[in-house]
Amino acid sequence: MWRTKLTELLGIDYPIIQGAMAYISESILVSAVCRAGATGVIATGGLDTDYVRDQIRKCREMTDRPFGVNLMLQSPNKDDIAQLVCDEKVSFVTIGAGNPVPFFEPLHQAGVRCIPVVPNVKLARRVQEKGADAMVIEGMEAGGHDGMQTALSLMENVIPEVQIPVIAAGGISDGRAVAAALIMGAAGVQMGSRFLLAEECQVHSKVKQAILDATDTDTVITGFTHNSNVRGLKNAFSKKYLEREYAGASSEELASMSAGTNRSAAVNGDIENGFVQVGMSLNRLSQIQSASDIVLQTVEEARSLLKNGPSLAGAGQ
Ligand SMILES: Cc1cc2nc3c(=O)[nH]c(=O)nc-3n(C[C@H](O)[C@H](O)[C@H](O)COP(=O)(O)O)c2cc1C
Question: Is 170 near ligand 1, meaning CB less than 6 Å away?
Answer without folding.
Answer: yes
